[in-house]
Structure formats: C-alpha cells, structure tokens
What we know:
- This protein is mainly alpha-helical.
- The protein has helices at 29-56, 63-80, 83-91, 99-132, 137-140, 143-160, 162-169, 186-190, 200-230, 235-263, 272-296, 299-318, and strands spanning 5-8, 11-14, 16-19, 96-98, 178-179.
- The strands form 2 sheets. A 3-stranded mixed β-sheet has the order 4-3-5.
- A hairpin with a 2-residue loop joins strand 1 and strand 2.
- It is globular, with a radius of gyration of 22 Å.
- The relative contact order is 0.14.
Amino acid sequence: MMTQLVSNGNQTLVTEFLFSMFPQLYEGGLLFFIPLLLVYIFIISGNLVIFIAVQLDMTLHTPMYFFISVLSFLEIWYTTTTIPNMLSCLISEKKTISLAGCLMQMYFFHSLGITEGCVLTAMAIDRYIAICHPLRYRTIMTPKLCIQLTAGSCLCGFLLVLPEIAWIATLPFCGSNQIHQIFCDFSPVLSLACTDTSLVVIVDAIHAVEILASFLVIALSYTRIIILILGMPSAEGRHKAFSTCAAHLAVFLLFFGSVAVMYLRFSATYSVFWDTVIAVTFVILAPFLNPIIYSLRNKDMKHAIGRLFHQKRAGRHEK
C-alpha cells in the first residue's frame, strides 16, 4: 500500500497514517463490518429516539431528562467521529487517514468525551439536590441553570483539548506511519513523532486531574445519595429513590470505568489486543448500552417512547 510522504531536507515527513489493526475484506473484514454497522445504526437511532421523546413529551421537561437528552445528543456525534471511519477501513483497501483528518478526529473525539463527562457530573449534582434537598430542588435546578451547566460543559470540553491538538499539529512525523489502534488517539499518534514528546507527560497529568475531579464529584454525590436512601424508613420510598439513580449510576460506572482503564494507566502498558478490546468498550460498547439503560430502566422514558411511536402510527392511519 502506498504511503503519502513529503520530503523535507534529510527527512521524509508522513502526511497520512495507516490503521494496521483492520483486516482486509478477504480476511474477514465483512464479518466485522456488518455487526459494527448494525451497532452504529442502533446507537444513532436509539439516542435520537430518546432525544426526540424528551423534546416532544411535556412530562419529560425536567432537569433530569434535559441532561439525558443532552447526553444522547452528544453520543450521536461522539460515535460519529470514529465509527464511520472504522466501517470504511473494514471494507476499503485504503485504510489510511490524513494527518489533518487524524487531528480533527482526536479533537472532536476527546472534546465530546470531556463534554459527556461534565454532563454526567451535572446529572450527579442534579440527582444529589433532588434527593438530598427536595424542597429546594425547583428553586435551584432552574431551566436557566441547566442551560448554563450544559454550555459550561461544552465550553470546557472544546477548549481543554485545543492546546494539545495545536501542539501535536506542530510535530514532525517521519518513519513508520502505522497506528496500532482502531482510531486516532494521543498515545499511538505521538509514538510516531520523530521528535521529543516528553511534554505529553504534563498534558496527561492535567487530563488525569480533570478525569479524577469529575469522578470524585460524581462518586461523592452518589455516596451521599445512597447513604440517604438506605436511611429512609419506607421500603417503597427507598425503591423509588434508588430507581431514579440506578440508570445514572450504571452509565457513570460504564463511562468512567472505561475512561480510567483507557487513560489512567500511567506507565502501565497493555498488549495490542487488550488495547483494542479497551478501545472497543470505550468507543462502541458504552454508547451502545446507554440507550438500553435509559429506556429499559426508566418507566417514564418507556411510556414517552411508546407515546411517540403511537402518535406516528396514528398520524399514518389518518392519512
């Protein structure tokens, strides 16, 4: 396979990268392509249905469902930054991505990922106030505050990654152009740079602090919530309170568990196989399970989705 190179003095600079983890079509690429395509369709349609249901159903116009709809909207774009390119690599002979395309993929993937982490933090705070301070909930969690928290999450996500991407864009890449991963990520790309990248240790430490800060806020919120729920005298009250948080807790553990394994490894190294397995969990499995968790574990959401499809069928019969 031809590699696009540009000569620069004594060095030959790489201008596109090759994904080495994808099999050729005749080696079983189609066997991975079809399940991944079905998963991607489910992720897009599932999250889109949740987003539309929240927007159209008045009973779901609450802070909790507002954040769920924002998370579903982000999941659509988060998976779209990586999965379409994976699908292309599975059936195409050309399994490459340009340097600019790689930088764009890293930027939007991590920006949307950080934004999701911030939205999950906002959701944890919302549940903490709803259960621990129910009388003040409506006065604290106003629509204006929800919009401000969402805007702040987006601002945080899309600005924090920008300096690192700008720095990577200035690095020269020469020699090997093979990325041993299923998408462009910081470590696999930086390992191909033909210059000192020790500055990445500082950047990694900053990202670790960001992840741990969000994790601690969410963990402390849910710890306080669980303690309060366990202290409730009524079994029915305990069940109702816990059921409202169970879905959020599941998504929180899934998201931050995969983030921790993927990015808080520090000096630990995994084999290429386990790196790929972790990446699949992080990029594909978590977004795939989110619509299932929010729709199957939530009666209000199930009823809203049912009403949405019932209205569509009724509209067709009227025509």
